[in-house]
């Protein structure tokens, strides 16, 4: 945190504390009660995470996977597999294979250098 951010945070805290001094005790009690209720609810909400070693608090075991989780994982695997297949299919031939095809073709090499070859091939 930079010095300017620390100064701003300090000014905000001081302003909030000044606001607390001017509040009546009933309002402060309601705020305190609401804060404690929120903290209790926060602690009661179970979180989930994949446990890599042992079953810790909030760990999600494979038994508790819902169909939504399974479909998500399968969709991810299908997307990655499709991407790998597409990238593999996009690779050009090996340069040695290209040279071998060029040298073994019926056309002489000079024909490939001719600018009119593209128009002849399109007809």
Low-confidence stretches: none
What would the average pLDDT be, to the nearest integer?
Answer: 78
**Overall geometry:** elongated
Rounded to the nearest angstrom, the radius of gyration is: 34 Å
Which class best fits the helix and strand makeup?
mainly alpha
Annotation, overall tally of beta strands: 2
Q: Beta fraction of the residues? A: under 5%
Distance between the termini: 69 Å
| Residues in helix, % | 55-70%
Question: What does this 3D model show about the protein?
Answer:
It contains 6 helices and 2 strands, in the order ααββαααα. It has 123 residues and is mainly α. It has a domain of 46 residues. A two-stranded parallel ribbon has the order 1-2. The relative contact order is 0.03.
Topology at a glance:
Layout lengths: L2 H19 L3 H20 L4 E2 L8 E2 L6 H24 L4 H10 L4 H5 L3 H6 L1
Parallel strand pairs: 1-2
Briefly characterize the structure.
The chain has 123 residues and is mostly helical. The chain is 68% helix and 3% strand.
List keywords for this structure.
123 residues, 6 helices, 2 strands, 68% helix
């Amino acid at each position: 945190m930079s010095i300017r951010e620390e100064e701003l945070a300090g000014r905000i805290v001081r302003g909030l504390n000044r606001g607390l001094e001017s509040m009546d005790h009933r309002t402060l009690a309601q705020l305190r009660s609401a804060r404690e209720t929120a903290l209790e609810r926060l602690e009661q909400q179970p979180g989930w995470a994949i446990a890599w070693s042992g079953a810790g608090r909030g760990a999600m075991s494979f038994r508790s996977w819902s169909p939504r989780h399974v479909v998500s994982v399968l969709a991810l695997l299908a997307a990655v597999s499709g991407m790998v297949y597409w990238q593999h299919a996009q690779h050009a031939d090996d340069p040695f294979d290209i040279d071998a095809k060029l040298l073994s073709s019926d056309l002489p090499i000079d024909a490939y250098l001719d600018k009119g070859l593209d128009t002849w091939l399109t007809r």
